[in-house]
């Protein structure tokens, strides 16, 4: 039962990993994918205790400069320790053994990321392989502690792609339980006023009737169950840290991050190097601003001739409210206040069964005012009477944040390269006008699967699953995927809304007017395309001398909260390890001399987890940046918005970060 014995046994341990080891939440009947390893090595599941409120009382986040920042008392501290106690054994199952052969695992296809795009890719591959009686090995790797723990989305879900993937999804028990019953859109004109837009005046593409209010994390858990039933190997808790290249610079897979290194960079007793996962095709499905995805985009110059990607940050809370105040299926979107007319953004509020309200705020990261805080704008928005009435008497039980793509159609890179391809938000398939990307992500993965299978077996009817080595196959580029995407409804849908987001660069009112015109009249058929800016969002931040500091109200602890209080609701956790947020060596002087002095330290305000702060020596006046990397919820905003783009976001050890349950 020693993990090393399993590894030294080489391929003999692979069948043991195929056991389905699912733990059940104490709150729902949904299964939680934790691992595919022998039961003596299985870690305890990272599930919520019976009461979410109880959990947030038990766990206390301590602001610190070291990695050991989660503290607690009583059951809370013991629970946190127990959930982590099995992680070392779990990690050794994808860590190198005593010989070179033990440090490599080979598959026909490796999928990086167990979100809707990655899981749909894997499932469709297995469906097609089964139909054609083809032996195909597929592996999905996921950096979250379990499938869904790093998933954050609104989410009003369109079922179009799910219907194609599983026409019988209702019979299979997909967690879509709250159909939209009421759909509202309003312009907030101030801290008290609003103008409701009648449904007949809205473009049909923004009509949410027939859609479902869901937890995307729960849907991904369900998709993972279906995938495991098909024989797909899923490994949550392992972070892809490197892209593997062959001598001719084609992609040959990924390498799992080494584990067991302390915050000073020294190996601990638990140190084990990560294994290489080699594949004939590697599918990058990491989501927005994925580390490996961004690397291959740069390596193969996939943005050549394309617009620069632009981003937003989405912040979300989940509330439990009294049954008497709950309106299952209610959907409300707003634009306007509290943002000024130069800042792109909006909000959502959804009532989901049994008694939850999902509230969120999305703000474009091309904003200019360095004193603006997306988090504080979110908290301020909740105080508007049309929002507050839905939350009063309730309890906030979960919080999180995530960057999202807003570049749209113009910013979609070339999708393929030798040895791999991009799907989902790694490629940027978000419909910005709808604020929806799950359906397009799933469909992109399904199309990728069709083309990957056709390409691999056009090359050879042999496979890695059949005993061949990856090196015995010549790397190929699945060019058919690009053409098939361009002929799909995904491409058509994104093309139709391509001018919505960039129209707001001329201000809120012009953007609102033009969006209505293009969606209701032109239908995207106008012969022009508005371009995104030519440089990244970090270049749009204005210097502090041009702006007045914004005074935000103190939180009331009932509707609004300080960041660290909310952060306890994210379940964020990182083992003792080196900081994964790194100042680029060539920009080492930027934080103190440029960001702090010229821009007023905007990273201390745009970070939704209070990762960044500055200290000033009282005697010398020396300014020093402090990075509280342990607080990081993996939103990627700092990788996008820091002045000069001085931060490089790298993956921490697998299982770290937020532990979202129903986001």
Which keywords apply here?
single chain, 21 helices, alpha+beta, disordered N terminus, 663 residues, 8-stranded mixed beta sheet, 27% helix
Can you put this structure into words, describing what you see?
- With 663 residues, the chain is α+β, with helices and mostly antiparallel strands.
- The protein contains 21 helices and 28 strands.
- The strands form 8 sheets. Strands 5, 6, 12, 13, 14, 17, 23 and 24 form an 8-stranded mixed β-sheet that branches. Strands 10-9-19-20-21-18-22 form a 7-stranded mixed β-sheet. A 3-stranded antiparallel β-sheet has the order 7-11-8, with no helix packed on it.
- Strand 20 and strand 21 form a beta hairpin.
- Helix 6 packs parallel to helix 9, helix 6 crosses helix 13 and helix 13 runs antiparallel to helix 14.
- The longest helix is centred in the C-terminal third of the chain and has 22 residues.
- The N terminus is likely disordered.
Write the layout of secondary structure elements.
Layout: H1 3-8, H2 14-17, E1 21-24, E2 31-35, H3 52-58, E3 59-61, E4 70-72, H4 75-84, H5 87-92, E5 104-112, H6 116-131, E6 138-142, E7 156-157, H7 160-165, H8 169-172, E8 178-179, E9 182-188, E10 194-197, E11 212-213, H9 216-229, E12 233-236, E13 240-245, E14 251-256, E15 259-261, E16 267-272, E17 276-284, H10 291-299, E18 311-320, E19 330-336, E20 345-352, E21 356-364, H11 374-381, H12 385-391, E22 395-405, E23 416-417, E24 420-422, H13 438-459, H14 480-486, H15 489-496, H16 500-503, H17 508-522, H18 563-567, E25 581-583, H19 590-599, H20 603-606, E26 612-616, E27 623-627, H21 637-641, E28 647-649
Parallel strand pairs: 5-6, 5-17, 6-12, 9-19, 17-24
Antiparallel strand pairs: 1-2, 3-4, 7-11, 8-11, 9-10, 13-14, 14-17, 15-16, 18-21, 18-22, 19-20, 20-21, 23-24, 25-28, 26-27
């Amino acid at each position: 039962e020693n993990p090393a014995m399993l590894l030294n046994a080489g391929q003999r341990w692979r069948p043991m990993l195929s056991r389905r080891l699912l733990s059940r939440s104490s709150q729902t009947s949904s299964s939680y994918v934790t691992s595919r390893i022998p039961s003596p090595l299985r870690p305890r599941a990272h599930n919520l205790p019976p009461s979410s409120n109880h959990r947030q009382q038990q766990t206390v986040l301590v602001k610190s400069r070291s990695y050991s920042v989660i503290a607690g008392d009583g059951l809370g501290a013991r629970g946190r320790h127990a959930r982590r106690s099995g992680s070392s054994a779990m990690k050794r199952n994808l860590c190198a053994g005593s010989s070179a052969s033990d440090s490599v695992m080979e598959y026909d296809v490796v999928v990086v990321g167990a979100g809707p795009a990655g899981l749909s890719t894997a499932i469709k591959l297995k469906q097609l392989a089964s139909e054609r009686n083809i032996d195909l090995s597929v592996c999905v790797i996921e950096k979250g502690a379990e499938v869904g723990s790093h998933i954050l989305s609104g989410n009003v879900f369109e079922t179009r792609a799910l219907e194609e993937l599983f026409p019988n999804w209702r019979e299979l028990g997909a967690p879509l339980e709250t159909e939209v019953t009421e759909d509202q859109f309003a312009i907030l004109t101030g801290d008290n006023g609003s103008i409701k837009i009648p449904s007949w005046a809205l473009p049909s593409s923004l009509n949410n009737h027939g859609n479902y209010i869901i937890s995307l994390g729960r849907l991904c858990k369900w998709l993972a169950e279906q995938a495991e039933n098909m024989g797909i190997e899923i490994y949550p808790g392992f972070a892809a840290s490197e892209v593997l290249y062959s001598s001719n610079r084609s992609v040959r897979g990924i390498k799992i991050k080494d584990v067991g290194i302390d915050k000073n960079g020294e190996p601990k007793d638990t140190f084990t190097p990560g294994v290489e996962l080699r594949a004939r095709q590697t599918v990058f499905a990491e989501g927005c601003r994925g580390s490996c995805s961004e690397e291959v985009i740069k390596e193969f110059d996939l943005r050549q001739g394309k617009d620069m990607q632009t981003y937003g940050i989405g912040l979300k809370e989940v509330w439990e409210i009294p049954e008497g105040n709950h309106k299952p299926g209610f959907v409300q979107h707003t634009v306007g206040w509290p943002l000024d007319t130069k800042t792109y953004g909006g909000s959502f509020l959804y009532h989901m069964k049994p008694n939850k309200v999902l509230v969120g705020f999305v703000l474009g990261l091309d904003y200019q005012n360095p004193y603006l805080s997306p988090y504080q704008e979110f908290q301020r928005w909740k105080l508007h009477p049309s929002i507050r009435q839905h939350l009063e008497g309730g309890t906030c039980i979960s919080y999180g944040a995530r960057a999202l793509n807003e570049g749209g159609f113009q910013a979609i890179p070339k999708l393929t390269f030798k040895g791999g391809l991009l799907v989902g938000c790694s490629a940027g398939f978000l419909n910005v006008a709808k604020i929806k990307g799950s359906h397009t992500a799933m469909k992109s993965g399904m199309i990728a699967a069709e083309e990957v299978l056709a390409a691999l077996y056009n090359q050879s009817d042999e496979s890695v699953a059949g005993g061949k080595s990856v090196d015995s196959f010549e790397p190929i580029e699945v060019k058919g995927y690009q053409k098939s995407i361009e002929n799909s409804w995904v491409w058509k849908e994104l093309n139709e809304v391509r001018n919505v987001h960039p129209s707001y660069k001329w201000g809120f009112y012009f953007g609102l007017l033009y969006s209505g015109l293009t969606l209701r009249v032109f239908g995207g058929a106008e012969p022009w395309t508005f371009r995104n800016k030519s440089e990244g969002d970090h270049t749009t931040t204005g210097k502090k001398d041009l702006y007045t500091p914004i005074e935000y109200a103190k939180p009331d602890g009932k509707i609004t909260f300080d960041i660290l209080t909310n952060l306890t609701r994210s379940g964020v956790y990182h083992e003792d390890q080196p900081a994964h947020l790194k100042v680029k060596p060539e920009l080492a002087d930027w934080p103190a001399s440029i960001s702090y002095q010229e821009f007023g330290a905007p990273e201390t305000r745009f970070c939704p987890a209070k990762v960044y702060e500055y200290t000033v020596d009282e005697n010398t006046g020396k300014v020093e940046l402090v990075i509280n990397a342990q607080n990081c919820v993996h939103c990627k905003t700092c990788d996008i918005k820091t002045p000069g783009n001085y931060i490089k976001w790298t993956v921490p050890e697998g299982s770290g970060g937020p532990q979202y349950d129903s986001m």
